[in-house]
Amino acid sequence: MVTQSRMSDDADAGFEQRERDLRAQFLPKLKRVLAHVPFALDLLAAYYTVLDRETPMRVRMTLAAALAYFVLPFDIIPDFMVGLGYTDDAAILFAAIRMVSGSMQQRHYDAAQRWLDEAKKGQ
Question: Cα separations (Å) of 65 from 71, 111, 122?
Fold first, then answer.
């Protein structure tokens, strides 16, 4: 018989794997497309919220799903379409942020801004 605790452990383990995948793929993709993504600050703040262990798991999972959509190579609107490519990514991200906005802290936005400042120096 599967217990509630076992199901929770399995879900946590699955999330940890997806978090490792996100860490490996998110920042490299954002660096490649930074000039074309006007919502980079919100993307990064969501990323830092996901990495923050003080953030409730429900919030982390919601934002991780939105960030995974950004990272994945398939989209409703292909990213290479100038002017439209990131519209679907933005819509999904902003819907997720709206659902969990109370859990995104100023420290997440501060970390995002620091990363952006460093990335722009390196360009």
Answer: 10, 20, 29
Cα 38 from Cα 98, distance rounded (Å): 18
C-alpha span between 43 and 66 (Å, rounded)? 9
| CA dist., res. 36 & res. 25, Å (int) | 17
**CB-based contacts of 117, cutoff 8 Å, min separation 6:** none
Q: What is the pTM of this model?
A: 0.74
Q: How far apart are alpha carbons 41 and 113 in whole angstroms?
A: 7
| Tokens encoding 15 | 């999330």
Note the pLDDT tens digit of each residue in 37-73: 888 999 999 999 999 999 999 999 999 999 988 887 6
